[in-house]
Amino acid sequence: MPFVYAIVLLTALFQVPAPAAAAPPAPLGQALAGRWEGTLQYRDYTTDNAVTLPTSLVADTALRLAFTYDDGPGKTVRSSEQWTFDGTTLQMGAASAPLQVRDYRSNARGDLVLIAFGNGIENGVAVEVRQVVLRQGDTLQISRASRLPRQEWLLRHAYRLTVRR
């Protein structure tokens, strides 16, 4: 019986530590927080043409994003999203499917790279999705590309924004 106790004690002493926790979500919220101005470029689903709209974004550290688009003379469009991020998955709005984070890096200056993949529906068709969030200094880029299985990636939309001072 002492041998069994010794094995149990040694097992307890030399257990493999649990894997490190996923990256905390706070840096993403901190990187996005602020007032931003720039453009949204998107591919129109009906014509397949690229469209560019002047855009502003107000985001907070809780990952609430409020977009304003200038869609022509006298036409302003507003939308908002609540993102959730736990270090391994990113969900960009309640209606979107969670994306698996494959790369997430940030530094003390607030620069950040996040790349996530998953599945989605575009124009009624199931597609693979690649989402990229890049913050470098005073610039922020948020882009989405999609593809049908075994096809090339197509840019669906890209925000290119700078800090509004």
Using the coordinates shown, work out and report the CATH topology. Lipocalin
Order of helices and strands: HHEEEEEEEEEE
**Please, what is the average pLDDT?**
85
User: Which strands sit side by side, in order, in the main sheet?
Assistant: 1-2-3-4-5-6-7-8-9-10
Q: Based on CA inertia axes, which overall geometry fits?
A: globular
Quick structural gist:
With 165 residues, the protein is mainly β. It is built from two helices and ten strands.
Report on the structure:
The chain is mostly beta strands. The protein has a single domain (21-163), classed as Lipocalin (Beta Barrel). The protein contains two helices and ten strands. A ten-stranded antiparallel barrel has the order 1-2-3-4-5-6-7-8-9-10. Strand 4 and strand 5 (89-92) form a beta hairpin. The chain starts with a helix and ends with a strand. Residues 1-21 have low confidence and may be disordered.
